[in-house]
């Protein structure tokens, strides 16, 4: 039985390509071009969470992440950037599921393809990013991207199962 594709189904398939294009464009920029620090200094110049965050310290990509090592605004920017990684791939995985669900007969295959497409693109993007000045490609970012993608795939699967999204 052939499933009838709607305009919505075509839009759902188009959205992952838009997201990948935005990710490609974003990772082509230098770190200085993307810096959020001037904006952060303007909006939270009083460092409202500094005392609360001062004791937070952890390793990420072989570096110690803390206010003492990075400075307050770089520390805040780190969380914004990593949140952007997670949510970009959340939506990428989410829309791959919605775009493929009527095109692929088996539900498990839609899920697997969606996850593999996200992991493949995250790997490609980090590799490509490593060739840009001032940027690094980190395996830990691929893992973070994958976590976002798997979460997005799961949420899309759940919403389609409950028939909240058609």
Measured distance between first and last alpha carbons: 17 Å
Please count the beta strands (DSSP E, at least 2 residues each). 2
Query: What sequence of helices (H) and strands (E) makes up the elements?
Result: HHHHEEHHHH
Stretches where pLDDT is under 50 for at least 5 consecutive residues are none
- Tally of separate helices: 8
Oligomer: single chain
Structural class: mainly alpha
Shape: elongated
How much helix is in the residues?
A: 55-70%
Q: Describe the biggest sheet?
A: 2 strands, antiparallel
Order the strands across the largest sheet as they lie in space.
Answer: 1-2
Q: Provide the gyration radius in Å.
A: 19 Å
Mean pLDDT: 93
Strand content: under 5%
Describe this structure in words.
- The protein has 166 residues and is mainly alpha-helical.
- Helices cover 69% and strands 5% of the residues.
- The protein is built from eight helices and two strands, in the order H-H-H-H-E-E-H-H-H-H.
- The protein has helices spanning 7-27, 31-34, 37-43, 50-53, 67-70, 72-100, 107-129, 139-161, and strands spanning 57-60, 63-66.
- The chain has a two-stranded antiparallel sheet.
- A hairpin with a 2-residue loop joins strand 1 (57-60) and strand 2.
């Amino acid at each position: 039985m052939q499933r009838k594709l709607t305009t919505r189904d075509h839009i759902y398939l188009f959205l992952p390509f838009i997201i990948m294009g935005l990710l490609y464009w974003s990772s082509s920029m230098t770190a200085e071009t993307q810096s959020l620090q001037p904006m952060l200094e303007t909006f939270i110049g009083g460092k409202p969470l500094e005392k609360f965050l001062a004791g937070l310290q952890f390793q990420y990509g072989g570096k110690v992440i803390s206010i003492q090592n990075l400075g307050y605004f770089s520390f805040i920017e780190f969380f914004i950037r990593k949140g952007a990684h997670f949510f970009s791939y959340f939506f990428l995985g989410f829309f791959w599921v919605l775009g493929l669900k009527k095109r692929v007969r088996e539900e498990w295959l839609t899920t697997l393809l969606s996850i593999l497409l996200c992991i493949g693109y995250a790997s490609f993007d980090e590799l490509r990013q490593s060739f840009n000045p001032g940027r690094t490609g980190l395996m830990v970012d691929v893992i973070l991207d994958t976590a976002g993608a798997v979460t997005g795939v799961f949420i899309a699967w759940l919403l389609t199962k409950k028939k909240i999204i058609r």
